[in-house]
Amino acid sequence: MTHSRYAEESRRYDADKLSVWYGICFNFRDKTYREHTMPTGSHSLSFPVQGDKENSSFFTEYLNKLLEERDSLGLSDMIHEIDAMMLTVEPGNSVEYIEELCLMSPYHYLVTLESESHWTHVLRIDMTAPDLIIREVKNDDTKGIFRSLNEVFPIGSSKPHSRYMGEILRVTNRHDVVKLQQRRGILFFSQDDIGKLELPGNLAITKPSPYTHNVVAYLERKPEEPRVYALGVSSIRNDARQACERAKQRQQALAIAELILPVDHLATRIYSQNREVAILEWLSLSSYYYWGSFDIVDQNSSTNVTKSIHYADELRSPAKVFTANNTPYFVNHFKIFPSPTENFVRNYGPRLHHIALAVKDGNRQGIENIDFVVDAIREQGKSFLLDVIGSKDEGLKQIFSSASEHSSLIIEYVQRFGGFQGFFTKDNVAELTHAAGIEEELLRMQTEAQKAVRV
Questions:
Q1: pLDDT, tens digit, for every residue of 165-214?
Q2: Distance from the CA of 111 to the CA of which of 22, 401, 417, 421 falls in 20 to 30 A?
Q3: Options 3.90.180.10, 3.40.50.150, 3.10.180.10, 2.60.40.790; CATH of 79-250
Q4: Residues 17, 10: contact at Cβ < 8 Å?
């Protein structure tokens, strides 16, 4: 769509509320778009709990209390899917990151919203999958709360603007959701604060979590309405558009475009002592339920999964996963515990570690799809932390990419076989965690060496 068409469409809306109407740019995944929900009347505590991780009595008590309260207040019915994920990158890095993502994922560049200090790029698959919003500061000297979250951590401070910010959740009544959440003690930025942060004015945004350092935002819209972010001046940036087009041409040439599916889950790493409260906080803010926790003994950590009560398909609203060490770093001198998760948090801060993309089940040219995709992307120069692990017999195969130099985020690919419903096997998680820990230790050493040279 041309910029003039964007301008024409945008005039159909109140200019004080909307900067651009761009939801029509991509066709819906099915032409009679509707919410694909689980049966109505589903209760947040009605789902069976998986896993072998033992939780505290505090967690069990307040899991029940918080979800019962959330249901009784109507929040579970008013809060729906993850509509978008937000992240920020260093000055000059957004276009290269767009090209990287357009090669490695189903995302397409859609539009850029320019404000005084930022370019905000919107990437979209279609209206049945979450958007990806990439912010780039124009000036490296720009200060702000999201930069401050990076600056106290050794590796995080080396890229002060690069971090995942949080999720935007679709709600049916933003005013009522915010009012109820404030009564429960949730803190929000004021509209004046949102303006100063140059974030979309039609969002209600929480203050960063003390446990994950992520925010949660609420966007009011009906499921059939387009997603609109009320921010700045909209344009189609030629450099971003061309970068995405180059990547999509390579995807087609490599025959992988139809194999990579939307986001399956988002994995956040947190301090060991914050595992339970981070999960409970997210469940309080969202309409997700506690799927379960698994102890990964080999890596002295646990993997904890939450899923949407409304959507059985993670591609519609990704699962949220939290990983944490089983023991804090300061007891390691008594016994040498592996601590890749805790080490990551100490180096980067609590934050999103990876975005997992699903891979279509099946094979291409006699090679399972995930192996075909990874081989093709490796040929384009993208590195991975290990070979694809898992098997068809185990139900799934997985792999981590190296962390992006633009965002510090890892891309995971996961292929499930024959309707397998799990997120991992314990052996897979242990291998992935170990491989990521090795790369992160190397990055820490490189960062320290660079700081020593500057001194």
A1: 999 999 999 999 999 999 999 999 999 999 999 999 999 999 999 999 99
A2: 401
A3: 3.10.180.10
A4: no
